[in-house]
């Protein structure tokens, strides 16, 4: 496999990377390097629209969610609505950095992206979100029952993709091990979703509880992406463990930055209004921190506002003011920086080629400081 | 392991078998023989209520659905609300019949029951069913978002249980193979659910389409239960294949009988009123057959009735009358008997010990003629 480390190519799918690169906190090179490989592997993993069986219906919804087809099933320009493919990119990077070859990790990369998207389809049902990546959500178009099945089909497709790793000359023991790691990590993810749902009705969430929740809901799959990629490249347990810890801190940095952007992100870049997550009553980190830190009148107002079913614009502005008063914004960014530094520390014992070391640093920098 | 083939014991969990045995079409002996082993394996697979983490919430809902605890989390008399554990029983029986030992198949048996129950939790959401096994359903008590996650947690727990099969001295290749079979079969199950949802809005379903749908929705997991049990006992591909085909026909007999009971089942035995599935507008086999066979006035009435959102008692009686006119009842029972005979034929090439041969016959007889 021809590789092109640490530089952008100007071919193929990479043309889509250009507008992204122009923004603050450019998407690191590894994303464009693995993009077309991840896409091809995903196309292989998700069955096409078989005629007549009706089973195609489930897969049509999957393909729609993945941004491949529109509501009517017609092919889409894939560059418009797809995500970053963070998890597969991390998995391939880990394998590549340690073995100078990422092909063995491709089935795992596809599996991780499918499992992540399964969680998004179900998340949208749970949160009643009507839009994702500027498109109507699956449940919003086809109803909860079909969206529920589409999510389940996405998850199975991911599991099956993972079991395919054994066909690429990976030892059966290793194939079983990575399947277990993936399954264990998405059990954690689901536990995180449960906790998140529980937090909706609580105003006494401690920052530590919140960090535990995101370690499950977001962190587990990011950690397992790096752990699995490393495990497919090396038998050295300490190295695999270092990548797992790297992923753990990376996941934290990523999620707290996500929480930050959900409140203070630039409207034009994100396509969402400032304060959006406040409006949706999301108990993201800055709000949890404020609920822990505020006192007196500010606390009473927070409790009153989060006791309501809906927030009006005055409420949103008042919450934003309290977040300012207690220093939620600075605290969130400080925590992100701390997690970024811990991620860097976690990788220190591992000897990596220069290109990989540089890319790991770029990645941390990007995840902790991105604007979108 | 001490076994007690072909006879009922009077100890332990078997006390619960007594009332069941008194009914027409007694539950075959294999159900009581494996019952406590299946229960123990399930207890091992489903994490207990860990304190403080909040992750216990998801498992509390699982334990509730499985009939182990009540809504408040207090222990229940497990004999009251649990199902037959059909799939684990089939899996253990196949392994036992071929290897005279079922212990290697216990993780798979637990996995099958968990995957089946995952589908039930999600089915209840999709069908908006408020009661199952005489208890309120999970979504009805805790809402759709939490029920959705509880179902997902059940499914992952099943996947993990299956991967544990490797700890029992099963070769990693075989462990991977049975995991793949399980995953493939529940992809089929989910495709079946999608088709079933699609059928809700259709009145032109052909009997063949319906049989394909139930082969996916119900048949796949029953087939894989027997296939996996056989594969854990023997390397002989023809034998494994025979058990898979046995399961295929068994699944069809089981489901058509289920459809029959949903309409003409005895109210006292089932705890449901006659015509219940008509009332719920379920397009089960007898209705599909009638929609295919009816003509003239009868067909017009069926189309009018199934074009409505709700059926009143007159509608239900009218549908029952049309089913009688076109011979749906006899046809359903004939199809069940045919599937039962095909199931028996499928096993014929396999040389089984006498006890197993007798039990396989009892099983077919029970599934095709049961009253509950």
Give the helix proportion of chain A (percent range).
55-70%
Oligomer: homodimer
Strand order across the largest sheet of chain A: 1-2
Largest binding interface between chains = A-B, 46 and 46 residues
User: Structural class of the secondary structure composition of chain A?
Assistant: mainly alpha
The number of strands of chain A is 2
Instruction: Give me the strand/helix succession of chain A.
Output: HHHHHEEHHHHHHHHHHHH
The CATH architecture of the largest domain in chain A can be named as Orthogonal Bundle
- If helices are DSSP runs of H or I spanning 4 or more residues, what is the number of helices of chain A? 17
How many domain modules of chain A?
Answer: 2
Distance from N terminus to C terminus of chain A (CA atoms, Å) equals 32 Å
- The rounded Rg of chain A comes to 21 Å
CATH class assignment of the largest domain in chain A = Mainly Alpha
The unreliable regions of chain A are: 6-24, 49-54
Shape of chain A: globular
Beta-strand level of the residues of chain A, as a percent range?
under 5%
Would you mind describing this structure in some detail?
The structure is a homodimer of 372-residue chains. By secondary structure, chain A is mostly helical. The first copy, chain A, folds into two domains: 208 residues, Orthogonal Bundle (Farnesyl Diphosphate Synthase), CATH 1.10.600; 119 residues, Orthogonal Bundle (Farnesyl Diphosphate Synthase), CATH 1.10.600. The first copy, chain A, is 68% helix and 1% strand. Chain A has 17 helices and two strands. A two-stranded antiparallel sheet of chain A has the order 1-2. In chain A, a hairpin with a 2-residue loop joins β1 and β2. In chain A, α5 runs antiparallel to α9 and α13 crosses α16. Chain A is globular. The two termini of chain A are 32 Å apart. About 7% of the residues of chain A have low confidence. Chains A and B meet through α5, α7, α8 and α9 of A and α5, α7, α8 and α9 of B.
């Amino acid at each position: 496999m021809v590789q092109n480390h640490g530089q952008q190519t100007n071919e193929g799918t990479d043309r889509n990377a250009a507008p992204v690169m122009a923004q603050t906190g450019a998407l690191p090179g590894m994303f464009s390097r693995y993009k077309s490989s991840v896409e091809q592997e995903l196309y292989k993993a998700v069955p096409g629209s078989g005629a007549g069986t009706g089973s195609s219906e489930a897969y049509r919804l999957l393909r729609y969610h993945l941004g491949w087809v529109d509501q009517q099933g017609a092919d889409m320009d894939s560059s418009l609505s797809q995500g970053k493919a963070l998890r597969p990119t991390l998995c391939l990077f880990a394998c590549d950095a340690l073995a100078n070859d990422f092909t063995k990790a491709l089935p795992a990369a596809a599996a991780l992206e499918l499992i992540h998207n399964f969680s998004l389809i179900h998340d949208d049902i749970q949160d009643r979100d009507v839009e994702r990546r500027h498109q109507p959500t699956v449940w919003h178009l086809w109803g909860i029952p079909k969206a529920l099945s589409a999510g389940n089909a996405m998850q199975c497709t991911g599991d099956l993709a993972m079991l395919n790793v054994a066909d690429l000359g990976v030892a059966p023991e290793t194939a079983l091990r990575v399947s277990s790691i993936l399954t264990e990590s998405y059990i954690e993810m689901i536990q995180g979703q449960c906790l998140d749902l529980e937090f909706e009705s609580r105003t006494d969430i401690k920052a530590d509880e919140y960090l535990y929740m995101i370690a499950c809901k977001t962190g587990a799959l990011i950690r397992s992406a790096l752990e699995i990629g490393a495990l497919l490249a090396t038998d050295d347990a300490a190295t695999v463990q270092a990548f797992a810890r790297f992923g753990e801190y990376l996941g934290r940095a990523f999620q707290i930055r996500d929480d930050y952007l959900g409140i203070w992100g630039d409207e034009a870049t994100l396509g969402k209004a400032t304060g959006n997550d406040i409006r949706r009553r999301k108990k993201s980190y800055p709000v949890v921190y404020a609920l822990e830190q505020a006192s007196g009148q500010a606390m009473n107002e927070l409790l009153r506002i989060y006791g309501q079913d809906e927030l009006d614009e005055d409420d949103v502005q008042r919450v934003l003011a309290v977040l300012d008063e207690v220093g939620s914004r600075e605290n969130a960014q400080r925590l992100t920086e701390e997690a970024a530094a811990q991620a860097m520390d976690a990788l220190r014992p591992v000897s990596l080629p220069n290109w990989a070391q540089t890319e790991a640093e770029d990645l941390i920098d990007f995840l902790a400081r991105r604007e979108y």
